[in-house]
Design brief:
Elements lengths: L2 E6 L26 H10 L4 E10 L2 H9 L12 E8 L4 E7 L8 E6 L9 E3 L2 E7 L2 E7 L12 H16 L8 H6 L16 H10 L5 E4 L5 H13 L4 E5 L4 E8 L10 H7 L6 E3 L6 E5 L7 E4 L17 E4 L9 H14 L8 E9 H9 L6 H9 L5 E9 H5 L2 E2 L1 E6 L10 E5 L4 E5 L4 E5 L7 E2 L6 E3 L9
Parallel strand pairs: 12-16
Antiparallel strand pairs: 1-2, 2-3, 3-4, 4-5, 6-11, 6-24, 7-8, 9-15, 10-11, 10-15, 11-13, 13-14, 16-17, 17-19, 18-23, 19-20, 20-21, 21-22
């Protein structure tokens, strides 16, 4: 029989190590819980949780996959069962759950889905999936990103980073599998050594493993002198709603990046800052230059840790964005044109094209699906009808690169006055991968059916609201406005 025991917490998580009020037995076996669990709850959840519901026994797919692969072969006895803890906030909301596994001390946390509003101190732009949870015959939904700890034996940080990304895709998109952590371990190439105990993974191994689950990954980085360009590229993929696996040589560590922090638009009022980051030949500033934090799922820390560009004592983790050496980007097969190719072509377009993108402009680069883009334009009342009509009826590839350009004051108001839409399936040597571009006076587009380039002149396009549908805008607990 499955038991559900509700414990009123109100800041005292040590109650979880106590006894059942009726039976007198331990609420949670000492094989499944330790002081690290209690300290973690105290530090990260504090008084935000009013009640925890303890579910026992819980058959966790991920733990069982490693149990049969590894723990069942050990001389020492390891239980098959786990506990699942459900979190209820002070407002009475269901906020998600974590699984407690009977593994080594300090590594008890298994599969975890918790709403990030409990952890954020400032507004963040995050990827989240909707996960259904069944509890005592009731169905709940939690908007979260997957997280768990490594057990340091069969799984290490790179395995967990891949797991977070693959579980996110497997839940959100029908054409991807939803693998267990054991499946991931089994799919790592043996050419680099035995699978268990693992001695660590390289970017190549991570890329090869992701390809076995249907992705077409790319590896970027490896040049310390080009870290700024790597961060710009990473931010473009994050803006696209694509989680990336980051690897740090200095820390010998891997983690997934799943969003970014607040956009510092006040920097645009600082003339010295603008002059420092403005491209001299094109007069544009990349949107990424205004963002100094990303959010990570790091198995060494509880979920949604903030990584700062310049780490200090207030940072969530003990490393900075500048310590990222490589990123592995899990692209879909139809995303063939890479960021650096899009970026270089755009620079050429601005320098030698005839679009009137004058003055200092802020530029944001991202991928999205053409269906989502068209749905967005359909519902925007402030878009010029002729521009809306062209975009809604234009043939596009399944995924497109978008480049939004805004004057500084427009950007502060989250508005766009220039746009380029690019075929994501274009070849790397394709000089003109453009599908559509516009400034305030002219629209140029390519009709794939007639193989013709067409121009609509003398239009009056007023700035319209920017597209941000790839990420959720999430506020801190008590200030939630967008959940």
């Amino acid at each position: 029989m499955i038991s559900y025991t509700g414990i009123e917490i109100n800041g005292d998580y040590s109650k979880l190590m106590g006894n059942h009020p009726t039976t007198g037995e331990r609420l949670i076996s000492e094989k499944h819980i330790d002081n690290v669990v209690i300290e973690t709850f105290n530090k990260y959840l504090g008084d935000l949780i009013s009640k925890i519901i303890i579910e026992w026994p819980y058959y966790d797919q991920d733990y069982l996959s490693t149990y049969y692969l590894h723990y069942a072969k050990k001389f020492r006895n390891f239980p098959k069962y786990c506990y699942r803890l459900h979190f209820i906030s002070q407002k009475g909301d269901y906020c998600g759950y974590t699984v407690l596994r009977p593994v080594m001390y300090g590594k008890k946390f298994g599969r975890t889905y918790i709403n990030p509003i409990l952890f954020l101190k400032k507004t963040a732009y995050l990827m989240r999936g909707k996960y259904k949870v069944h509890l005592k015959g009731n169905e709940y939904t939690v908007k979260a990103f997957p997280w768990m700890m490594q057990d340091t034996d069969i799984t290490i940080c790179a395995h967990i980073a891949m797991w977070t990304v693959l579980k996110y895709y497997g839940n959100k998109f029908m054409n991807y599998v939803n693998p267990s952590i054991g499946d991931i371990v089994e799919n790592v190439s043996e050419n680099w050594g035995r699978k268990t105990p693992s001695i660590g993974l390289t970017p190549i191994q991570v890329s090869e493993t992701l390809s076995r689950f249907g992705f077409y990954p790319i590896i970027r980085g490896g040049n310390k002198e080009k870290t700024n360009q790597l961060l710009d590229e990473t931010m473009a993929y994050i803006e696209s709603g694509i989680p990336v696996i980051a690897m740090s040589e200095s820390k010998q560590h891997a983690f997934s990046i799943i969003g970014h922090g607040e956009i510092n638009k006040t920097c645009l009022d600082d003339e010295d800052y603008v002059n420092k980051y403005r491209e001299p030949e094109t007069n544009f500033i990349l949107h990424s230059k205004l963002i100094n934090t990303v959010y990570a799922m790091d198995d060494n820390w509880f979920p949604y840790r903030r990584i700062d560009k310049y780490a200090d004592s207030s940072s969530d983790v003990n490393y900075s964005m500048y310590e990222i050496s490589y990123v592995v980007v899990p692209l879909y097969s139809r995303m063939q044109l890479e960021y650096h190719e899009v970026y270089s072509r755009f620079i050429g377009l601005v320098k030698f094209g005839d679009m009137k993108w004058e003055g200092t402009r802020v530029v944001r680069i991202y991928i999205t699906s053409s269906n989502s883009l068209k749905e967005y334009y359909k519902n925007q009342e402030d878009v010029l009808p002729i521009l809306k009509n062209v975009i809604l009826h234009l043939n596009m590839s399944k995924f497109v690169w978008c480049i939004d350009t805004s004057e500084i004051e427009e950007y502060k108001e989250e508005k766009v006055s220039g746009k380029v839409i690019i075929d994501a399936t274009a070849g790397t040597k394709d000089i003109e991968p453009w599908i559509l571009m516009h400034d305030k006076e002219k629209i140029k587009y390519y009709d794939v059916v007639t193989d013709e380039k067409k121009i609509i002149k003398d239009v009056d396009i007023t700035p319209y609201k920017e597209y941000i549908h790839n990420l959720d805008v999430v506020s801190s607990y008590g200030e939630e406005k967008h959940d």
